[in-house]
């Protein structure tokens, strides 16, 4: 592939920088390769629901029978339904903002279901599907978007860290955590621990991510860098973030990189299990680029019609992550029509509960904002708390003067 030729030049007489100069054609080929799946995409289920055999990855999903596939389908439908409900609630003024995951269900459910309870996941802000697979009640998550809570779950119990809005910052936290797993001797065999860190294509332009790559690599940290390349960083397309496919960057840091079809839940499960196995055995880190598509706006404050054409979305609808599993199950006799009706009814009920909870969620007291900031409070924090509460008291008594 042309982009490979210039990214990994043979040692020559000239300085490496000169040897690595690409031709204009190679640059163009590299740009295309960032926004087209290409031959290097690992896929186990085609968009039409046909099973693609893979010598390398089939062993990692050998246990996936029809029942497991039905469960993965159910996970994705429930998560999508909850996502649509939350999006609607934002439009109705019940949430301050919502960050849709539409289109990324397979990347999140597939990778999330590959994790063991002992593993730790570090999300950014769109990983509602991963949260669900980690047993986080989505009702505990909704408070963040209603702006009443920081994050309402026990992250240690769930192995799921709080959301991070600062782009790429969680990669440093995850790297530190994975280095800790290594230092404490928690890697080395099948029972080893691992960490997975989620970030977007745009985040790969952020310094924090590169620092995480360097530190993770030199300490052999048991860390899966899971990049959901949804093609957009708000209005910035991936080809403006990188000259070459993102997974190829891993080679520069000295660890494996792999591009998986992020709309294929089976491939995401297999590739993430493989990567986690590498980590458990002390061969981490690994970079996974899940090649997917953000089918909705960046957030509810964004209008994607300003910067992308609708035919792009139409094209990706044909690669829908949920439809291909349905097609596979129907074609192979793995599910009856009633199953799909049942899952839809369950998803509607799931969404109704989320709505009910959102409407009846108690308003937290004002001092709530000072809780759980640090493990232990500090005199400064106490002072701020007291000042804030007395400031609010001033409003309560203002009318009396
Ligand atoms: C350090 C930092 N810079 C800028 C922003 C504003 N911002 C929020 S989301 C975003 C784009 C991120 O895109 P990507 O990493 O592809 O993730 P996606 O939203 O597509 O999941 C930016 C620039 C931020 N939150 N943090
Ligand atoms: Mg993105």
From TrEMBL:
InterPro entries associated with the record: Alpha-ketoacid_DH_E1_comp, DH_E1, PdhA/BkdA, THDP-binding
PANTHER family to which the protein is assigned, alphabetical: 2-OXOISOVALERATE DEHYDROGENASE SUBUNIT ALPHA, MITOCHONDRIAL (PTHR43380)
Highest taxon listed in the record's lineage: Bacteria
Source organism: Amycolatopsis sulphurea
NCBIfam families linked to this entry: PDH_E1_alph_x
Any one Pfam family match given in the protein's UniProt record, by short name: E1_dh
Residue ranges of domain Dehydrogenase E1 component in the record: 74-348
GO biological process, one term: branched-chain amino acid catabolic process
Molecular function terms, GO-annotated: magnesium ion binding; oxidoreductase activity, acting on the aldehyde or oxo group of donors, disulfide as acceptor
Keywords: Oxidoreductase, Pyruvate, Thiamine pyrophosphate
Region (Disordered): 1-21
Protein name: Pyruvate dehydrogenase E1 component alpha subunit
């Amino acid at each position: 592939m042309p982009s490979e030729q210039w990214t990994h030049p043979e040692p020559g007489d000239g300085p490496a920088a000169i040897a690595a100069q690409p031709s204009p054609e190679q640059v163009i080929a590299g740009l295309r390769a960032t926004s087209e799946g290409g031959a290097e995409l690992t896929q186990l289920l085609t968009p039409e629901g046909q099973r693609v055999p893979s010598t390398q990855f089939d062993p990692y999903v050998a246990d996936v029978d029809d029942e497991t596939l039905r469960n993965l389908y159910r996970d994705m439908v429930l998560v999508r339904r909850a996502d649509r409900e939350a999006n609607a609630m934002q439009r109705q003024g019940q949430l301050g903002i919502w960050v849709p995951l539409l289109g990324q269900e397979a990347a999140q459910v597939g990778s999330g279901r590959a994790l063991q309870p002992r593993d730790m996941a570090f999300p950014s802000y769109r990983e509602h599907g991963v949260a669900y697979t980690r047993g986080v009640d989505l009702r505990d998550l909704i408070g963040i978007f209603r702006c009443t809570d920081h994050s309402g779950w026990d992250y240690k119990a769930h192995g799921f860290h709080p959301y991070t809005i600062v782009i790429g910052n969680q990669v440093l936290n995850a790297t530190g955590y994975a280095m800790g797993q290594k230092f404490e001797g928690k890697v080395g065999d099948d029972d080893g621990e691992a960490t997975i860190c989620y970030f977007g294509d745009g985040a790969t332009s952020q310094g924090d991510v590169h620092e995480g790559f360097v530190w993770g690599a030199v300490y052999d940290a048991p860390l899966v860098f899971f990049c959901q390349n949804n093609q957009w960083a708000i209005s910035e397309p991936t080809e403006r973030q990188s000259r070459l496919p993102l997974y190829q960057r891993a080679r520069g840091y000295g660890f494996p990189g792999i591009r998986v079809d992020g709309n294929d839940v089976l491939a995401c499960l297999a590739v993430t299990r493989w990567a986690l196995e590498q980590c458990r055995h002390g061969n981490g880190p690994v970079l996974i680029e899940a090649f997917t598509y953000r089918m909705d706006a960046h957030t509810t404050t964004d209008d994607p019609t300003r910067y992308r054409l609708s035919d792009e979305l139409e094209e990706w609808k044909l690669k829908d992550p949920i439809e291909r599993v349905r097609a596979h199950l129907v074609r192979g006799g793995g599910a009856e029509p009633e199953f799909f009706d049942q899952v839809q009814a369950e998803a509607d009920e799931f969404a109704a509960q989320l709505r009910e909870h959102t409407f009846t969620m108690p308003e937290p007291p004002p001092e709530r904002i000072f809780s759980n900031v640090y493990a232990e409070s500090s005199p400064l924090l106490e002072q701020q708390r007291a000042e804030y509460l007395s400031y609010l008291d001033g409003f309560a008594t203002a009318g009396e003067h």
